[in-house]
Specification:
With 455 residues, the chain is of the alpha/beta class. It is built from 18 helices and nine strands. β1 and β2 form a beta hairpin.
């Protein structure tokens, strides 16, 4: 029923501004002064700082997620295949997330930031199932498919969340694109830094392994954005803790061995390290033992009993034993074995240095990965009477080249990890440093894999 005109007038009067009296004017001035006092530069600075910290934390966690995702693909597909699509996928996910942040906010029923920990907790479980189809996907597209279904959604929503958070700055005009550019640059720098930190510390503790890093990043997301949605992450956590064989726990290793033994293999040891996922496998049927780093074979020995009881085990790759022929090269002044000094770059399973030491040659082994050297001694009988140097060969060679008191009669250069040879160990500068590290009649042997089909 329509209201009478008198009631409409009363309603309009009640909704109108209060009459302009001296008392109301003074009251309004006091409210404006109070509001101006609250909106000080300090308060604005605190708000901006809080907004910046939230954005930085989200970006840092996204960077760590990106880095550890690529590292977890390396044991399955190899370091090089895992890197082919990675940067392109990260760039695309960040671009789509940032540009579509407002659309996502309007069409997703939950806060975007609340979805981040939920996705992060499910990544290890999804990778576990996708790795079972690695042979089907292949090395070319397997990493792309895996990351497209796991880390890409996390990066997309992280970029969207950062875009919405930085919206609070209210930047318009010519500087409107600045937050996005700065965020992307920070993400790239943080990704490179986090990859180095994760890989260089992974051998120090099981809690710093690749899957453990994934869980810790997810937990950090949860601390940043706690919500009731975290209850849905419980199944993923239980699966990772109990059923994920990539977790380096005793029960996971036992479960992994059960499946490997059905294929005729046995896992002796495994550990994440600074060059990759290092493992020792033994063939039960063919009776050989190999050392792997990610997707590469660093060496192996036959386990078949030999009547002549050799000092050095029979390697599956004969070239490693043949490298000791470096001491047979004719030089103007020969050196007795017990007076010779040898440098071996790259330990592998210790076949080459072991062969030199069997002749009484004082041998120095330079190996960047401490786990590789540890496993060579523990599982491949590398004699402990060698001088071990855990260092980057480039750094060590430059150091020796500049130290005139240290020179070698023999240098064996044999490095191969991750499906390729490290470029830094084949540069002109490095080879010159090796040459300077030799005695005048010294000899160097370099092992290089050459693809003959290339021009």
């Amino acid at each position: 029923m329509a209201k009478p005109k008198s009631q409409k007038r009363e309603a309009n009067v009640s909704n109108a501004s209060p009459p302009l009296t001296q008392e109301n004017f003074e009251k309004e001035l006091k409210e404006l002064a109070k509001k101006a006092k609250e909106e000080t530069f300090f308060n604005h600075a605190v708000d901006w700082a809080g907004t910046s910290v939230r954005a930085v934390v989200i970006l840092a966690l996204a960077a760590a997620s990106s880095s550890v995702s690529q590292l977890t693909l390396s044991p399955v597909y190899g370091a090089i295949p895992a890197s082919i699509w990675h940067d392109k996928l990260v760039n695309a996910a960040c671009f789509l997330g940032w540009s579509g942040s407002f659309w996502l906010r309007r069409n997703v029923r939950w806060r975007l930031i609340d979805l981040l920990p939920l996705i992060a907790f499910y990544i290890p479980m999804l990778q576990f199932f996708l790795f079972n189809y690695s042979n089907t996907f292949g090395a070319t597209y397997g990493p792309l498919i895996t990351e497209l279904l796991t880390v890409a959604p996390l990066l997309l929503l992280s970029a969207s969340a950062v875009g919405l958070v930085l919206e609070e700055f209210g930047i318009t005009g010519r500087w409107q694109s600045a937050p996005g550019i700065v965020s992307f640059v920070f993400l790239k720098i943080a990704s490179a830094w986090s990859a180095n930190v994760i890989q260089s510390t992974s051998y120090k503790s099981v809690l710093l392994s690749r899957v453990s890093w994934q869980v810790q990043v997810a937990a950090s997301y949860a601390l940043l954005a706690p919500s009731k949605l975290l209850l849905y992450a419980v199944p993923a956590l239980l699966h990772t803790a109990v059923f994920n064989i990539h977790v380096q726990s005793p029960w996971a290793t036992q479960a992994l061995n059960s499946s490997l033994q059905a294929e005729g293999y046995r896992l002796i040891a495994r550990q994440d390290s600074n060059t990759g996922y290092v493992s020792v496998l033994e063939s039960i049927k063919s009776q050989f033992r190999v050392l792997r780093c990610d997707h590469s074979l660093l060496g192996g020995v036959w386990m078949v009993h030999q009547s002549h009881n050799p000092v050095v085990g029979e390697p599956v790759y004969a070239i490693f034993t043949m490298l000791e022929a470096v001491r047979l090269i004719e030089v103007p002044v020969s050196v007795p074995d017990n007076e010779a000094q040898a440098l071996v770059i790259g330990a592998g399973i210790g076949t080459s240095p072991g062969a030199l030491m069997a002749h009484g040659i004082n041998t120095t082994i330079v190996e960047i990965d401490p786990v590789v050297l540890e496993y060579a001694v523990k599982y491949f009988d590398l004699a402990p009477n060698h001088h071990a140097v855990i260092d980057d060969a480039v750094h060590y060679a430059a150091q020796v080249a500049n130290d005139t008191t240290q020179r070698y009669d023999y240098i064996i250069h044999d490095v191969f990890t991750g499906g390729a040879e490290p470029i830094a160990l084949f540069t002109d500068e490095f080879l010159r440093d090796l040459h300077r590290s030799l005695k005048p009649d010294g000899v160097i042997a370099i092992v290089s894999r050459v693809v003959h089909s290339l021009p």
